Automatic annotation (TrEMBL):
It comes from the Bacteria. Gene3D superfamilies: Aldolase class I. This is Anaerobic sulfatase-maturation protein. PANTHER family: ANAEROBIC SULFATASE-MATURATING ENZYME HOMOLOG ASLB-RELATED (PTHR43273:SF3). GO terms for molecular function: 4 iron, 4 sulfur cluster binding; metal ion binding; oxidoreductase activity. It comes from Pseudoprevotella muciniphila. Its cofactor is [4Fe-4S] cluster. Belongs to the radical SAM superfamily. Anaerobic sulfatase-maturating enzyme family. Keywords: 4Fe-4S, Iron, Iron-sulfur, Metal-binding, S-adenosyl-L-methionine. Residues 4-236 form the Radical SAM core domain.
Amino acid sequence: MDYSPFARPLYVMLKPIGAHCNLACEYCYYLEKANLYDGVPRHIISDELLEKFIREYIGAQTMQSVLFTWHGGETLMRPIAFYEKAMRLQQKYAEGRQIDNCIQTNGTLLTDEWCEFFAKNNWLVGVSIDGPQEFHDEYRRTRQGLPSWHKVMKGIELLNKHEVEWNALAVVNDFNADYPLDVYHFFKEINCRYIQFTPIVERIVEGDAEAIKTKKRSAKYKSLPHLANLTDDGAPLAEFSVTPEQWGNFLCTIFDEWVRNDVAEYYVLTFDCTLANWMGKQPSICTFGASCGHAAVMEFNGDVYACDHFVFPEFKLGNIREQSLVSMMYGEQQTEFGKLKTQLPKQCLACKWKFACNGECPKNRFVKTEGEYNLNYLCAGYKKYFAHVAPYMEYMAEQLRQELPPANIMEYLKTHKL
Ligand SMILES: C[S@@+](CC[C@H](N)C(=O)[O-])C[C@H]1O[C@@H](n2cnc3c(N)ncnc32)[C@H](O)[C@@H]1O
Ligand code: SF4
Ligand code: SF4
Ligand code: SF4
């Protein structure tokens, strides 16, 4: 078996059913990817390709533990038997390594059987839910416009019943962004201790802008608009995007409640990453890291792309049938892609928050500057957030440096101001 000579984990998310999904969330960046494989009748990974991927993926790791991430589209549209087969293959090629699995789902297809499977095999389940019903159902609907919140809540109940480890992914869009505490309290009420908030920032290729505007929200899409990528200059913003001000305000408002009541009880990934950067450690979300290009995706047919948000023909690294994962992940094209992250405008280079922000995701950098590189669209929001949390982060980082729990901040804030 080939072992990679590189000392960091290689990470490739798998799309076993491509972009196919039982929902048609209005803001979804992935649904349109089905168009890349228009002529292909079934967007399902073959047994042979699955085995090839699993063997190579495990063989390419330099670490003792290997993490598989199942992503979509809607992952639960493949049967349990498919994932059982994948686990058998993982064991076949594990050679003593520890294998972990996590799966991302919209939660609507969860059943007792699924939850038993996840519980029995210790899978970590990521569930997408955008907060209380009115916010969630604004955008997360079927093609027929039917809402999904009740089904997701039922799914969460089943996960809890079977004691499956799960976390929530909530996107922050033009609508729910104005209600940070309603969203945060909802997650606390359902006892969700791990929450990831992702800002929605999408642009639309010229020509599709009118089409999306004239479609009623949640109306049936015949074909999805092609959302713009980094190279489409001047593409208009999709109306469901969060504004920088909304994003900054959303984070600051939730932070104020979290830092006084919830540290170490609830984990909000953005706050976690900010503290990691304050400590000079590697944050767990790529967007706040200093470099990227380490996390690719593989489509059902073996095509490998630079990143889940760059599944465009120009960011295709190759196909696993023709090239090894190692050669694609460490090849010239992916190395160049990774450099996008460090190509920052003057504003970022001079910014006091650069160590915590790193210009965020290159996907969101489309604000023209006088210099060579674009500025991140969300910059104003991040400046507000970092300035707001700085004294608290400093306090928590100091606790950590003294090997004390950062949660001490809650006691301190009862009698002091920062
Ligand atoms: C593409 S979905 C695939 C897995 C599964 N169908 C689900 O909804 O969880 C993965 C995650 O991306 C989020 N997402 C969808 N569109 C997005 C966008 N335009 N920007 C950022 N995140 C988005 C979804 O809410 C979901 O949490
Ligand atoms: S459920 Fe997931 S893949 Fe399906 S449309 Fe919604 S965000 Fe996209
Ligand atoms: S381009 Fe954005 S989403 Fe992709 S790896 Fe880099 S920071 Fe992460
Ligand atoms: S806050 Fe703005 S200027 Fe500072 S690093 Fe982030 S994007 Fe750049």
